[in-house]
Design goal:
single chain, about 140 residues, mainly alpha, about 60% helix, flat
């Protein structure tokens, strides 16, 4: 059930991150635990622990997503979806923290102390070619 615990942590911190967007999105741990307990009680039973933990993880994710979508302003729903998706992909090991930093900050911010400034493996190593703007005056 460690996968369920990791997913639950990612969901809770995605909710907490929304408090930085608008203080009205503040959600207590008690509210979150109520959603989690409901998902434990209603998740489909399974014959193996892996199947059961997948059922719980999927249901709690869906319930948290629906809960937050009811209280978020329309303009913030996409941001929550992005935050939630990135956190889930990170804990599942599908993407790396460095990839997320690159995605959010871009190539110019990628260079850090002691690094060569190389991009993650999924990007092009060749920087874009900068071309001079055509001159408006004739020579």
């Amino acid at each position: 059930y460690r996968g369920v615990a990791r997913r639950r942590t990612a969901l809770y911190f995605a909710i907490l991150d929304m408090t930085n967007v608008n203080w009205m999105y503040n959600t207590s741990l008690q509210q979150f635990l109520k959603i989690f307990d409901t998902s434990l009680a209603t998740a489909k039973k399974a014959s193996t622990i892996k199947e059961r933990s997948n059922n719980i993880s999927n249901l709690v994710t869906e319930m948290v997503f629906r809960y937050m979508n009811r209280l978020l302003y329309t303009k913030d729903k996409a941001l929550f979806s992005l935050s939630l998706g990135l956190r889930i992909k990170l804990i599942d090991g599908i993407i790396k923290p460095l990839d997320v930093k690159f995605f959010l900050r871009g190539r110019g911010q990628y260079q850090t102390r002691g690094r060569s400034g190389r991009s993650p493996g999924w990007t092009s190593e060749r920087p874009p070619v900068s071309r001079p703007c055509p001159s408006t005056s004739s020579a």
